[in-house]
Amino acid sequence: MTSDTQAIEVSHLVKQFGAFTAVNDISFSVAVGETFGFLGPNGAGKTTTIRMLTGISPPTSGMATIFGHDIVRDTVAARQSMGIVSETSNVYTDLTGWQNMMLAAQLYRVGRTERDRKATELLQRFELYERRGDRVHGYSKGMMRRLTIAMGLVNSPRLLFLDEPTSGLDVESNLIIRDMISDLIRGGVTVFLTTHNIEEANVLCDRVAIIDKGLIAAIDAPERLKKTIQSVQSIEVSFDRSSPTRLDELRQVPMVNHARKEGDKFKLFTEDPTEVIDGVMAYAHTHNTRVTSITTLGPSLEDVFVKLTGLQRSGGGVTAID
């Protein structure tokens, strides 16, 4: 495709810090109007990539363009159409919410009349307008995060970079931000979203790139990614009574590749769900127990992520590597 249809084009991008390679020869493109997820554990190279794409940190080699503008040679033009929301809140806590919005608008060179209108609209959208005159040091973490995102939208960007937008937030702020992202998507804004929140990527993104140790392991639509990893199909089963040895016993059922306990249920991973269902029913009969529920599940995006990156689960989630 041409740059008229591509918001971002990345070719063989590399970033090294001394002997350490943080981003290792990655290439991808993001179409205009697309919501593109950059999914990976902490330390995978997500933030380093965003810093290169937004002109904050120069690449060691390779190139990237934003709406056809080279981010290194034509940084000003490339940045005019983008909004940037970094992982950490970049607000000035001694200023009021309104003053922070005005400062961001001036940095983005938004005209005086437009900046007042846009600041009012965004602060209302993020439920901060009533607190606009308060100094930000009195805001909660969620309010600061919402203000940071509002500041990144003050220039009505065509492309918005969101680096871990909902990390560590309360439920209310999380929902407000997700609703805002959905509104932007419906409005045709291109969104580049870095996250380690698998469900967030699954719900919001047209396509997802999975990055680990600076390398892209896969890029595709979430549903297609799931279908490519057939070995992480699973059976979820529960029984009428518990047994301390049940998990180990279920691991011995033919065609079960891996098993784990989830609450009162057991999840059995397999390439042949039909064979495993037959095996589970046979197991229940020989062990004098009754199956109370059994469900066939396709792979989740979390399963794909674990399979591709080799991360281990810890309790109910994925263990991130810093």
Can you offer a commentary on this structure?
The chain is an alpha/beta fold and 322 residues long. The chain has two domains: 6-221, P-loop containing nucleotide triphosphate hydrolases (Rossmann fold, 3-Layer(aba) Sandwich); 230-298, Alpha-Beta Plaits, CATH 3.30.70. The chain is built from eleven helices and 16 strands. It has helices at residues 46-53, 75-80, 97-107, 112-125, 141-152, 171-186, 198-204, 222-228, 246-250, 273-286, 301-309, and strands spanning 6-17, 20-31, 35-39, 61-66, 69-70, 82-85, 159-163, 190-195, 207-212, 215-220, 233-239, 256-262, 265-270, 291-297, 313-314, 317-318. A hairpin with a 2-residue loop joins strand 9 and strand 10. 40% of the residues are buried. Residues 313-322 have low confidence and may be disordered.
Rough outline: elongated
Helix content: 25-40%
**Largest sheet: spatial strand order:** 6-7-8-3-9-10
For this structure, what is the CATH class of the largest domain? Alpha Beta
Structural class, by secondary structure, is alpha/beta
Q: For the residues shown, what is the average pLDDT?
A: 88
Corresponding CATH architecture of the largest domain: 3-Layer(aba) Sandwich
Number of helices: 11
CATH superfamily of the largest domain: P-loop containing nucleotide triphosphate hydrolases
Count of DSSP E strands?
16
Order of helices and strands: EEEHEEHEHHHEHEHEEHEHEEHEHEE
What is the count of structural domains?
2
Rg:
23 Å
Taking the alpha carbons of the first and last residues, their distance comes to 36 Å
